[in-house]
């Protein structure tokens, strides 16, 4: 795909890459993409780390429920949130009218379009990644280190001097996930009229039919995200991304006291903005039951198609991720580290670029049984989301007692029975969580689907 972008009229040429260096438009794309990514990452850290700490280390009221509720934003595709907030921030909507009356102005204080709103929506969509990895780091660390620190320091100093440095790689990994998901997001910037690299790539390929220019436009983005992937791998290569076990020794719990109400209010406010308000707006906008009936009748086939396709893709992704994860965790091969890095690299490629690559590979008469069917979408979902599912399942396998497998091999050298009776039951939590997250990501994917979906299909 990259090689094809440097071929012009049958000879090697860098014509498609001239604009990358000298076009002001490219600088605007770079500025917008970086502002969105850094802004989303900053505010996701500002929200996600405190929520992770409150859920793990304190006596937060209702944390049993908050431990599940904070994951709900991952179930709502970010572009769906965009639709809601465009409506919520509209000039004639209650929120805009209230703010206009409050500040005595006849102009809306907030436009539903622009970089600030993109950052706002992506933050509400992606902060759970930071929270999830913060919780994982806190649950994985040795409490004895904190206990020793409390003999000398107050709780705040223990967190600064001991807890934070230990869980920093997990926080950094969560931040990098958010940064990469933000910089390659196509749907939200497109809906909110902000030009970014994924939007430009889509326009070049789908509207202007210039696939070589589309690939050339993606190169700076791919280089940048690949560097970030390398940083993430370096810090997390010997750590668990997510702790899936729910059984832990008794931990020291910080009493919130007078901070109990602000803490509950903080988390509830974030959930209100990221889940309740957008969903409520969609329900109110849709109207009565007749609207839902008409929508169901007109889109029923597409809904089923999306659910079935996402479920099949999630199942394939989970199965492949299990075997890859087991090999990466248990193998002693010299090339294991290289393979580990390679499994992360798809994160660095925007969905629109990945779709172009799939089209280039499979759009031939003898491979039409793949390109002309839903299989091409499954391939796209596998390439897009298998890295994250591998990390989830690998975290579970890290805690697997290898002596059980070794003992089973000594008793009966039957890998199928060992797989079905030992490995799968012991890793079922990771497999279930991996499948659910893969399903959610597949349902919400837009950039890849729009480009590779077969003619006559809709999702």
Descriptive overview:
The chain has 459 residues and is mainly alpha-helical. It contains 22 helices and two strands. A two-stranded antiparallel sheet has the order 1-2. The protein is globular. The mean pLDDT is 79.
Helix-strand topology string: HEEHHHHHHHHHHHHHHHHHHHHH
Q: Calculate Rg over CA atoms.
A: 24 Å
The total strand number stands at 2
Count of helix runs? 22
List the main descriptive attributes of the protein structure presented here.
mainly alpha; globular; 459 residues; two-stranded antiparallel sheet; 1% strand
Give a brief outline of the structure.
By secondary structure, the protein is an all-alpha fold. The protein has helices at 2-5, 18-22, 24-57, 63-69, 78-88, 94-102, 115-140, 143-150, 155-183, 187-191, 197-207, 211-236, 260-286, 289-330, 336-344, 351-362, 368-371, 375-398, 402-411, 415-426, 428-444, 447-452, and strands at 7-8, 11-12.
């Amino acid at each position: 795909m990259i090689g094809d972008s440097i071929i012009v009229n049958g000879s090697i040429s860098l014509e498609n890459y001239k604009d990358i260096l000298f076009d002001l438009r490219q600088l605007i794309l770079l500025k917008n993409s970086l502002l969105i990514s850094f802004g989303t990452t900053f505010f996701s850290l500002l929200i996600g780390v405190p929520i992770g700490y409150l859920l793990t280390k304190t006596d937060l009221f209702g944390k049993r429920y908050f431990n599940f509720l904070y994951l709900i934003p991952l179930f709502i595709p970010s572009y769906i949130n965009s639709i809601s907030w465009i409506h919520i921030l509209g000039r004639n909507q209650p929120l805009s009218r209230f703010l206009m009356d409050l500040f005595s102005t006849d102009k809306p204080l907030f436009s539903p379009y622009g970089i600030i709103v993109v950052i706002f929506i992506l933050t509400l969509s992606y902060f759970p990644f930071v929270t999830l990895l913060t919780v994982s780091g806190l649950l994985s660390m040795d409490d004895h280190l904190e206990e020793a620190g409390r003999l000398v320091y107050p709780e705040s100093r223990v967190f600064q001097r001991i807890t934070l440095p230990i869980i920093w790689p997990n926080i950094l990994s969560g931040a990098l996930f958010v940064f990469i998901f933000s910089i390659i997001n196509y749907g939200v910037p497109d809906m909110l009229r902000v030009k970014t690299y994924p939007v430009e790539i889509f326009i070049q390929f789908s509207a202007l039919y210039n696939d070589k220019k589309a690939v050339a436009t993606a190169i700076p983005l791919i280089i940048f995200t690949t560097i970030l992937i390398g940083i993430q791998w370096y810090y997390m290569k010997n750590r668990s991304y997510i702790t899936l076990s729910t059984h832990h020794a008794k931990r020291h719990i910080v009493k919130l006291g007078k901070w109990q109400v602000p803490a509950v209010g903080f988390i509830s406010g974030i959930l209100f903005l990221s889940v309740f308000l957008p969903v409520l707006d969609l329900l109110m906008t849709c109207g009565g039951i007749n609207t839902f009936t008409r929508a169901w009748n007109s889109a029923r086939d597409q809904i089923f198609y999306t659910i079935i396709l996402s479920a099949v893709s999630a199942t394939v992704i989970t199965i492949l991720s299990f075997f890859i994860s087991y090999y990466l965790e248990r193998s002693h091969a010299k090339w294991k580290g290289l393979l580990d890095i390679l499994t992360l690299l798809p994160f660095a490629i925007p969905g629109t670029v990945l779709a172009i690559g799939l089209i280039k590979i499979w759009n031939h008469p003898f491979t039409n049984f793949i390109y002309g069917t839903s299989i091409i979408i499954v391939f796209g979902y596998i390439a897009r989301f298998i890295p994250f599912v591998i990390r989830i399942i690998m975290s579970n396998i890290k805690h697997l007692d290898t002596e059980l497998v070794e003992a089973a091999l000594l008793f009966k050298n039957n890998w199928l029975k060992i797989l079905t009776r030992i490995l799968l039951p012991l890793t079922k939590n990771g497999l279930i969580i991996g499948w659910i997250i893969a399903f959610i990501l597949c349902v919400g994917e837009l950039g890849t689907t729009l480009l590779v979906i077969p003619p006559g299909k809709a999702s």
